[in-house]
Structures are given as C-alpha cells and as structure tokens.
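Hi V.,

You were right to ask for the full record rather than a summary. Here it is.
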Amino acid sequence: MDNVTKESLVADIIRLGYRRAAAEEIVDRVFTKIVEEVASGHKVRIAGFGVFEPKKRAPRTARNPRTNEPVPIPARVLPVFTPGKEFKNATGGNHGR
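Predicted structure:
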C-alpha cells in the first residue's frame, strides 16, 4: 500500500465487523477529538503511538528574497507530533536509545 488514507482506515475497521457508517464515525471522531484538543492548547497522548501537542513559535523577521526587505512574521501555534518509543522502534528511528 502506497499511502494510508482515511478511506483505508475505514476499510480496516469495516473488516473488524463494523458497518461503514459506524466505521466512518469512529475515524472522524478520533481525528476531530485530536484536532479540538490540540487547538485548545492541550496535549493528546496515545500510549505506544505518540503525542500530538501545540508548540508556540516566536515572532521573527524574515527577508523578501527579491527586495531584501524585512518581513515580520507573527507568533503562531503549530501542531506537532512526537512519536512514542514503540513507534520509533518500529520504524528504526530510535538508534539504541
């Protein structure tokens, strides 16, 4: 499989015996809950998988490459995912830690 999509996740849940409508609702609710919590400033920790959390990025000044003029970039909050230990181990990304 090249990419995992929302539809492929729904299909996996259907194979467990759920109806399509229920499977779609399960996937939607999980994603919606993660987005709502991170948008509210909270961490979402899923044991064995990882942590979704908001990270504050400080304001900074960049430069327009054409004019070399300074361009102010405001502070913002970005969603960040940090994989858990099992996830890192499964992908070979732990390098013995």
